[in-house]
TrEMBL record:
Name of a matching Pfam family: AAA
Record-linked InterPro entries: ATPase_AAA_core (IPR003959), P-loop_NTPase (IPR027417)
Superkingdom of origin: Bacteria
Domain ATPase AAA-type core: 321-454
Name the record gives this protein: ATPase family protein associated with various cellular activities (AAA)
Molecular functions per Gene Ontology: ATP binding; ATP hydrolysis activity
Amino acid sequence: MSVTSDLMELREEDIRKHYDAAVAMLDGFDHTPRIAKGKDLTAAPERSSGIGTRRRFRTTTPGLVTRSSARPEGVHLVERIEGAGGNDPLVSPTQASVQHGLRRALAIALAVGETFAEASGLGDLKRENLAGALGADKKSAFSELLAAEALAVNHVFANATSFLLAPLLSETQVEVGEVEEVLTDNAQLALHGALWELDQDIAALVSDEDRLVACVCAFAEQLMEKVALRAQNAAQLGAFVGAGWKVEADDLTINGFTPARAAKGTTLTMSFKKPNEVVGNHIAKYQAMKLAKMLMAYDFDRRLNPFAELGGFIFTFMGDGAPGTGKTTLIQMMAGLINDYCQVAGYAFRYQNFGIDNIDSYQGKSGQNAKAFVQNVLDPQVIGFGTIDDIDQIAGKRGDRQSSAGQQEVTAVFMEAFAGANTVVRGNCTFGMFSNYPENVDDALRQRAGARFLVDGPQTREDYIDILALLMGKNHDIALGEHELFEAQMIQKAVAASFESHNRPHEEGLLNVFDRVHGQVGDLDTIAKMGTYLKAIQEADPRFTGRAIKNITDAVKVRAMDFELPDEWMEQPELFLAKDYDTKKAMIGELRLPITTEMVVQEINRYADSEFRYADKSDEVAISNMVRDMQRTEAAKKRYLEGKG
């Protein structure tokens, strides 16, 4: 886990001094494409007679056939943008906004490049090179720093463009394809290459103003992604990725190769549920209520949550249960709690669900949709809650021939996002995966769910009386009878009983392992005995790996944070929410409980129960399918022989 560095102010005067250079680039420059090939722009008007209509010259000289024979092309983005709205001779507000946004983004990029050059020593090397005094021993470092500056400037340009033009976006979408002209010779050439390709895309794809904004923003997103990939193997980037800048006038934050997002919440129109309207599901409801309050401890200045640092924060969880047991109700309750808390605190709240409609037949689009979903929820400027309902239908099992290419893409994106090498848990968001059939979810993806919420619905007689009374409403005169309404839903008492029930496993296969180990070593009251139990579980189910142990220890840390943040802390921001990070951390630390052996054993049993439950169902489904296939084969063979005879 990493903590973001303090942000430096990118001064307005340092940005505005680059306006002239930015305008000059937008007005016109010549660029010879080095990597990409120009699009067929035969419909584009000629700037002078004959130019633009000739076919590209292809040499027949041996040895020169593979050398690029592209000619310099004049790039005039101002004219291109003004011509994108039809025949109106006046510049429209949208066209002007795009031009101003691009000028501002270029100026910000050049200002960051200048700051990077001074911080990295590139500025001194440039001056030595101009004076002809650059030593041979410095040429390698000079080239690497020039490439690093080019990558940084290109990414900041794309980042700022996407951020500044985002408010202009409509529902129109434009597919620009992969960005190819990503050059790293130097910063100016890098920007020329990007603007040349943007000019090509606008000319080929834009027919009205809505498509203009969509095209520019889509290009910026693709450029950011391509540059970030190139940067993974680049050297000398420490002065860029190790620092952060804030542009106050635009409320833009630049943090390395992380895309900036506007701190805007979503207006929720779902039907919220109160905790007392969720019947049964005691542990799931309790953990959801705790998680909603945990999210509110996030510190926007430090960009970190004390719970994420102290342990006990739930970044991903899996909610599973039979159809009709209350998964949707649980989502509505949790989203409602977070929404109410954020309104009191004045925080932006972003809720997003990734559904089956995000799976696209266009190759690569499903993965892009999944990546956009993850990035929106991860945005460090908001409190985020992302849900993936019916994940067994959305994310395909690897190697499953029934899964579409889009489902496989989604699985790969979620696996990387939830527990990949670049995953940083700040504590501002959580992802919930819900399924009626979790055994159909890819094993590796399912194990990336750090917590398990068993959504089993009403269980007891009291639960069924409570849910009947709740759903009947008040428009009747039927007597309640001998029953204390919602007494069984008193959360603390119900949760204590639910946790105690896990002193012994629930699944038969795990219970056999538990009894055998208990008979050999006695009570599981030491780490060595618990480790023996874990090894025995692994021998019974090879899928019980080191990740399972991490998820169990994370769950134990959650139990150590098994306290309620007082309701008044959520209702009166000055008591907790408005405090600085260190004060919040100290206040939470004082409430932390000691870890006991009972907690550890209960969490081992809870997690292993869920894995055995999934494995048993998965194996049973596989066996049933094989039996059905064999029966069909046998019946077909019998019918064939009868027909032949």
